[in-house]
UniProtKB/TrEMBL annotation:
It holds the Pfam family Gelsolin. It comes from Astatotilapia calliptera. The gene is SEC24D. This is SEC24 homolog D, COPII coat complex component. Residues 761-860 form the Sec23/Sec24 helical domain. GO terms for biological process: COPII-coated vesicle cargo loading; intracellular protein transport. Residues 881-932 form the Gelsolin-like domain.
C-alpha cells in the first residue's frame, strides 16, 4: 500500500519540454494540450471499454455528434440502402409511369428527386417496401427485367422515405437514400473485350459460376474500338449522375465533418473519411491517422465473417504525420524495470487494463490475466474504480503514446547509436553525362543541413557517409581533421567489406568543410569516365557492412542509372518478355529473381538497413528484382525514366528532399496483439517476416502503412468488444530506443447490418489492392480479377440477403458505407499491375505493385480515384479549394482546363477550345511544356493549387501538360477511372451492372 513507489512526475497536462526530454517520468508534452481535456474535469472516457459497452458509455457534453453508431441501434436497415433502378421513378411523378417512358425518366431522376414537393413521403419514415410482384426472373438478363415492365410502382412502396434534402447521398442519420434508377444495360452478352480484360466469372470454382458478359458498348466513355453491334432495342444513354459518385461522397463528408473535432472516446466509432479535413483529439483510442479499419464492428463469429466475406483488417501507419494543431505523442518512462506489461500476453499498459482490488491488481483486457500492480506503479482508485492518476498518465487515458525502452529492448543489451544515412552515387557514364551526379552533389550541400533531428535539438544526430560506384566501389574518408577527403577503392565486389571505419560515417556539422570539398570534386573526378557497367547488390552489401561495423542502423540512398550487368553478385539480365502477358506465366514478370537479393533483404533487416532506390533508367532494369530489397526494408523506389535534367531535375530533387527529411524510425519490430477471440493472421507492407507474428522493418517512415488482416479463433463478445494493440519497438533519429503504442477498440455484433454500417470503403480498398497485388505473384491475373469481382458481388449480395428489406431483384442495393466501393474496385482492376496489356511497361507494373504494398489508406484512395479539378472556372480570389469532378471524359469540356493528380502523376489538360486568354494567362505562349511563373491572378492561383498538392503528397509529381486530342493525351486518359479502361477493363457503369447481375445470380 505504499505510495512512495509511485514515480513522481509532473502531470502531463502541464506545459512540458518537447518530445525527447523524457527524463521526468512522463517526459514531454506539447506546450498546450488541445481542448483542455487533460487539465479539465474527467469528462470523457470515464470507464475502460472492457467493462462498458459503447452504447452506454458516458459521453462528454457535445460529443454525441461524433457518435453516430450509438444512437442508431434502432433504425431500420432501409436507411442504409441505395436503390438503383426503377424504384425512385415515381418520386418524380405521382403515378406509375408508362413503361416505355421509363428510360427517359431515369436519366433525369436525380433532378426529379431533389425538386420533389409532392407526393409527400409516407407518414411513417420506416415503412418497408412491400413488393407485391414476385422477384423478376434472372433467367433473361439480356432483356429488360420483368420488374421494369411490371406496374409495381405504387406510391406506397417506392418513394424512399428520406426528405428531399438528404438526396442524393445518404446521411447516417437520415432514413433512406435513393439513387436514381437506371435501365437494364445488358442487351446481350458480348464477347470479352478485345483489350484483354477477361471478364470474371469464367471457370471459377463453381461458387460464382456462370458466363458473364464483357464490358458494355454504347456506354458513356466507351473506348473506340469496342464493338457496337448489339442485339435488342436501342438503349437510351444512362445518366452517369444516377450512380453513386466518389466526389459526392467526399464532398458530403467534408460538409458534414470537415473542420470538426473527432474525439476518440467511443468504441467502434467510424472516423470521417480519409479525404476529410478534421482534427483528432485522442481520448483512449488511436487516431484514425494511425489506424483505420475495414469495419468498426466485427462479426461475433467466424461463421458470420465467412458469410459476408468482408475482410477484417486494419491499416496501421505507426509514424503518420500529425497536423500542427494535434498533440504529438507523449513519452512515458516507467523507469529501470521498463514499461508495465501483462505477464501472460505481454500487452503494454493501456486504457484497456482494468484495475481491481483497490488498485493492487489489474485485469488485462487482452487475455484477462490478473496481474499484480508493480509497487512503483500503485495508485488508489476513485469511487468509480478508476485510478486517481488516470488523467496524468498517457498510458491509462490515451490511444497512442510512447514508452522509453530499457536495455532489454536493445540489441545486445546496449543502447543504440544514432542512425546513419549513406549516399551511394552511381558515377557510370549515363549519370555523369546527364548531369545527374553534379545535380545530386550540389543538392546534398544544402540538403544535409536539413537532416531530421529530435525536437528541441539544434543539430541532427544522424551520421552521414558517401560512396560512389560503377563496377567498383569508392569509399570516402571525410573525417573532420582531414584537409582533403580520401578515396579508397574496393574492386573485389564478391567479398564486399568496408575499407575504413574511422572517418566513413561522420557528423555532418563537424565534417562540413571536407564534405563540401568531396561533393565539389566528385563530378570532376569522373567527368571522363567511359564506364557504363554497374554493380548493385555489392553496393547494398557495403551499406550493411558499414552499419554493422558502426553498430548503427540507417538508410542507404542509392542513385542508380541502369540494370547491374557488371560481373558481380546480383548481376541481372534482361528477362522482360511481353509474350508472357495474359498467360499463366505472367506472374514471373513480378517475381524477383531468387538468391542474392533474398539473402540481402534478410541481412538488411537484421542490421536495420533501409534501402531507398532512385532509378534513372533508359530501358528495362528488372525493377521486380532491383526493388526487392527496398520493398522488404521499408524503403521507397523512385523511377525517372529517360531522365533529363531540364524536365525532370526539379521533380527528382523534390522527391529527394522529401525523402531525406521524412520523419522516420529505424530497426523496427512491430507486434499486433488482440483481445481473445481473434488475431492478426496476415501482414502486407514494406516489411520482412521471420515468423508469423513479428513484423520487422529496417525503417518505417510517416508514409509507410502496414495492412493487417484478422481472423477469428473464437466467438467475440458484443459486450466487451474487440481490442487491438500495435506495439512498435524502434530507434529514434536521435538514437533512443522507444516503444510506440497504438490502441484501438472495436465493436462486435451478431448482426451483419452493424458490420456493413460500420464499414470503411477506403480501408477496404486498401486491403483489396494489397492482397490482389500480392496474389499476382502466385496466380494468373485472370484468377485474381475473378476473385475480386466475386468477392465484391458476394459482399453486396450478403448485405442484400441479410440486411436489406425485401425489394425487387432488379434493384441494386448497396450499403451506404459501401456505395462507392464498386468504383474503387473497378478502378483497381484497371491498374497497370492487374490489367494484362503488352502496351504497359513491365517495370512500371512492377514498380506500381511494390509502391502500393507499402501505402496507407490516403494514398490508395487517391491512386484509385484521382482528383480531377476544373481550373477554367475557378474563383482566383477564393480561399476555398477547387471542387473536383468525377473522373470521366463526360466531365471534360472542350473549352476547359483541368488538373488531374493521383499522388503519383499530375496532368494539366487543355481542351482544344480552351480560351486563348486562359492559355495566355497560364503559359504566355508559345511554351507549353512547363508552367511559367507569370504575374497574373490565374497563374498565381493555379500554381498555388499545384504547389499545395505537391506539398501534401508523399511523392513529388511531375506536371505533364497535355492538349486534348494530342497523342500524349492517352497518358492522361488512363486516369479517367470511371471510363472504360485504355488497356482493357470495364467502365464504372458497366461494372456496376455486371456486379448487379452477379449478385442476382448469387441470390437465386
Ligand atoms: Zn494479457
Amino acid at each position: 500500500m505504499s505510495q512512495q513507489g509511485y514515480v513522481a512526475a509532473p502531470p502531463y497536462s502541464q506545459a512540458q519540454p518537447g518530445m525527447g526530454a523524457y527524463q521526468g517520468g512522463f517526459g514531454s508534452g506539447p506546450t498546450q494540450p488541445l481542448y483542455g481535456h487533460y487539465g479539465g474535469p474527467p469528462q470523457a472516457f470515464s470507464a475502460p471499454p472492457a467493462v462498458a459497452p459503447a452504447a452506454s458509455m458516458p459521453l462528454p457534453a457535445g460529443s454525441s455528434q461524433y457518435n453516430p453508431n450509438v444512437q442508431q441501434n434502432d433504425c431500420t436497415d432501409s436507411d442504409r440502402l441505395i436503390f438503383l433502378e426503377v424504384q425512385t421513378t415515381n418520386m418524380a411523378s405521382p403515378g406509375p409511369p408508362p413503361t416505355q417512358q421509363l428510360t427517359n425518366q431515369m436519366s433525369s431522376m436525380n433532378l426529379g428527386i431533389q425538386g420533389l414537393q409532392s407526393p409527400p413521403p409516407p407518414a411513417s419514415s420506416v415503412v418497408q417496401q412491400p413488393f407485391q410482384t414476385p422477384p423478376p426472373s434472372t433467367m433473361a438478363p439480356p432483356q429488360m427485367p420483368p420488374g421494369l415492365q411490371s406496374p409495381h410502382m405504387s406510391p406506397l412502396m417506392s418513394p424512399p422515405q428520406s426528405p428531399p434534402e438528404s438526396m442524393p447521398m445518404a446521411s447516417q442519420s437520415m432514413a433512406g437514400t435513393s439513387m436514381a434508377g437506371m435501365g437494364r444495360p445488358f442487351p446481350g452478352p458480348p464477347p470479352p473485350g478485345p483489350g484483354g480484360f477477361q471478364q470474371p466469372g469464367l471457370g471459377s470454382a463453381g461458387q460464382f459460376g456462370g458466363y458473364m458478359a464483357g464490358p458494355q458498348q454504347n456506354m458513356p466513355g466507351a473506348f473506340p474500338g469496342a464493338q457496337s453491334a448489339m442485339a435488342g432495342p436501342p438503349q437510351k444513354k444512362l445518366d452517369p449522375d444516377s450512380i453513386p459518385s466518389i466526389t459526392h461522397v467526399i464532398e458530403d463528408d467534408q460538409v458534414k465533418q470537415g473542420g470538426q473535432v473527432f474525439t476518440t472516446n467511443i468504441r467502434g466509432q467510424v472516423p470521417p473519411l480519409v479525404t476529410t479535413d478534421f482534427t483528432v483529439t485522442d481520448q483512449g483510442n488511436a487516431s484514425p491517422r494511425f489506424i483505420r479499419c475495414t469495419t468498426y464492428s466485427l462479426p461475433c463469429t467466424a461463421d458470420l465473417a465467412k458469410q459476408c466475406q468482408v475482410p477484417l483488417a486494419a491499416i496501421i501507419k505507426p509514424f503518420a504525420s500529425l497536423p500542427k494543431n494535434e498533440t504529438p505523442l507523449y513519452v512515458v518512462n516507467h523507469g529501470d524495470t521498463g514499461p508495465v506489461r501483462c505477464n501472460r500476453c505481454k500487452a503494454y499498459m493501456c486504457p484497456y487494463m482494468q484495475f481491481i482490488d483497490g488498485g493492487r491488481r489489474y485485469q488485462c483486457g487482452f487475455c484477462n490475466c490478473v496481474n499484480e500492480v508493480p509497487v512503483f506503479y500503485f495508485q488508489h482508485l476513485d469511487h468509480m474504480g478508476r485510478r486517481v492518476d488516470f488523467y496524468e498518465r498517457p498510458e491509462l487515458s490515451l490511444g497512442s503514446y510512447e514508452f522509453v525502452a530499457t536495455l532489454d529492448y536493445c540489441k545486445n543489451n546496449k543502447p543504440p547509436n544514432p542512425p546513419a544515412y549513406i549516399f551511394m552515387i552511381d558515377v557510370s557514364y549515363n549519370n555523369i553525362k546527364s548531369g545527374l551526379v553534379k545535380l545530386i552533389c550540389d543538392e546534398l550541400k544544402t540538403l544535409l543541413e536539413k537532416l531530421p533531428r529530435e525536437e528541441g535539438m539544434e543539430t541532427s544526430a544522424i551520421k552521414v557517409g558517401f560512396v560512389t560506384y560503377n563496377k567498383v566501389l569508392h569509399f570516402y574518408n571525410v573525417k573532420s581533421a582531414l584537409a582533403q577527403p580520401q578515396m579508397m577503392v574496393v574492386s573485389d565486389t564478391a567479398e564486399m567489406f568496408v575499407p575504413l571505419l574511422d572517418g566513413f560515417l561522420v557528423n555532418y556539422q563537424d565534417s562540413r568543410a571536407v564534405i563540401y570539398n568531396l561533393l565539389d570534386q566528385i563530378p570532376d573526378m569522373f567527368a571522363d569516365t567511359a564506364e557504363s557497367e554497374t554493380v548493385f547488390a555489392p553496393v547494398i552489401q557495403a551499406g550493411v557492412e558499414a552499419f554493422k561495423a558502426a553498430e548503427c542502423s540507417g538508410k542507404l540512398f542509392i542513385f542508380q542509372s541502369s540494370m547491374p550487368t557488371a560481373e558481380a553478385p546480383g548481376k541481372l539480365k534482361n528477362r522482360d518478355d511481353k509474350k508472357l502477358v495474359n498467360t499463366d506465366k505472367e506472374k514471373t514478370l513480378f517475381q524477383p529473381q531468387k538468391g542474392v537479393y533474398e539473402q540481402l533483404s534478410k541481412d538488411c533487416v537484421a542490421s536495420g538497413c533501409c534501402v531507398d532506390l532512385f532509378l534513372f533508367p533508359s530501358q528495362y532494369t528488372d525493377i521486380a528484382t532491383m526493388a526487392d530489397v527496398p520493398s522488404h526494408t521499408g524503403g521507397s523506389v523512385y523511377k525517372y525514366s529517360n531522365f533529363q535534367i531540364e524536365t525532370d531535375g526539379e521533380h527528382f530533387l523534390r522527391d529527394l528532399r522529401k525523402d531525406v527529411q521524412k520523419s522516420i524510425g529505424f530497426d523496427a519490430i512491430m507486434r499486433v496483439r488482440t483481445s481473445t477471440g481473434f488475431r492478426a493472421t496476415d501482414f502486407f507492407g514494406g516489411i520482412y517476416m521471420n515468423n508469423t507474428t513479428d513484423v520487422e522493418m529496417a525503417a518505417v517512415d510517416c508514409d509507410n502503412g502496414v495492412t493487417v488482416e484478422f481472423k477469428h479463433d473464437d466467438t467475440l463478445s458484443e459486450e466487451t468488444g474487440a481490442l487491438m494493440q500495435c506495439a512498435l519497438l524502434y530507434t529514434t533519429i536521435g538514437g533512443q530506443r522507444r516503444l510506440r503504442i497504438h490502441n484501438l477498440s472495436l465493436n462486435c455484433s451478431s448482426q451483419l447490418s452493424e458490420l456493413y454500417k460500420s464499414c470503411e470503403t477506403d480501408s477496404l480498398i486498401n486491403f483489396f489492392a494489397k492482397s490482389a497485388y500480392r496474389a499476382i505473384l502466385n496466380q494468373p491475373l485472370k484468377n485474381v480479377r475473378e476473385i475480386l469481382v466475386n468477392q465484391t458481388a458476394h459482399m453486396l449480395a450478403c448485405y442484400r440477403k441479410n440486411c436489406a428489406s425485401p425489394s425487387a431483384a432488379s434493384q441494386l442495393i448497396l450499403p451506404d458505407a459501401m456505395k462507392v466501393f464498386p468504383v474503387y474496385m473497378n478502378s483497381l482492376m484497371k491498374t497497370a499491375p492487374l490489367v494484362g496489356s503488352t502496351e504497359l511497361s513491365t517495370d512500371d507494373r512492377a514498380h506500381q505493385r511494390l509502391s502500393v504494398m507499402a501505402m496507407g489508406v490516403e494514398d490508395t484512395q487517391l491512386l484509385l480515384y484521382p482528383r480531377l479539378i476544373p481550373l477554367h472556372n475557378i474563383d482566383v480570389n477564393s480561399e476555398k479549394p477547387a471542387t473536383p469532378v468525377r473522373c470521366s471524359e463526360e466531365r471534360l469540356t472542350d473549352s476547359g482546363i483541368f488538373l488531374l493528380e493521383n499522388g503519383q502523376s499530375m496532368f494539366l489538360w487543355l481542351g482544344q477550345a480552351s480560351s486563348p486568354d486562359l492559355i495566355q494567362s497560364l503559359f504566355n505562349l508559345p511554351s507549353l511544356c512547363a508552367l511559367p511563373e507569370l504575374d497574373n491572378p490565374l497563374s498565381r492561383k493555379v500554381r498555388s493549387i499545384i504547389s499545395g498538392l505537391l506539398e501534401k503528397r508523399s511523392n513529388s509529381m511531375k506536371l505533364q501538360i497535355v492538349r486534348q486530342k494530342d497523342k500524349p493525351e492517352m497518358l492522361f486518359r488512363q486516369f479517367l477511372v470511371e471510363d472504360k479502361g485504355l488497356h482493357g477493363g470495364a467502365s464504372y457503369m458497366d461494372f456496376l451492372c455486371y456486379v448487379h447481375r452477379e449478385i442476382r445470380q448469387l441470390l437465386t
